[in-house]
Amino acid sequence: MVEQISRFVPEVASNYRERIVSRLQEYIEGRCELDEARLLNEVALFAERADISEELTRLHSHLTQFAHIVEEKEPIGRKLDFLVQECHREVNTMGAKANHLEISRRVVLLKAELEKVKEQVQNIE
Question: Is the separation of the CB atoms in 1 and 106 below 8 Å?
């Protein structure tokens, strides 16, 4: 699911640009020209706010750590529980920032899977 989310990231800014151009054209209806430079600036600002690449990087790191911790011989339950919480935090942030239907759908699925993992991890010493 994380890989699927990653594939939709480039669409976020372009979809926003299309929506804002459409709405602005409806609003101005030939009364004035659309300022392309201003539009690009607004889209760039939105893209910066909606960028989830850092969250994806951290989530990948947490999942890699999770796989390594599972192989440890010492008690790992608390470590895994903490990592699941961190994964959940990253996924929540992605859902809040992305503003993309397919990303939102996958975030919901990912949250459900993380809840299952959390329940299993709580049974580990």
Answer: yes
Closest CA to 2 of 113, 78, 77, 86: 113
Tens of pLDDT, residues 43-55: 788 878 888 999 9
Angle (CA) 62 72 92, round 5°: 20
Concatenate the DSSP letters of all residues of 63-120 into one string.
HHHHHHHHT-SS--HHHHHHHHHHHHHHHHHHHHHH--HHHHHHHHHHHHHHHHHHHH
From residue 52, alpha-carbon distances to 24, 87, 88, 119 in Å are 26, 13, 14, 27
Q: Rounded to two decimals, what is the model's pTM?
A: 0.79
Cα dihedral across residues 11, 1, 102, 100: positive or negative: negative
Residue 15 contacts residue 100 (beta carbons within 8 Å): yes
Can you give the length of the chain in residues?
A: 125
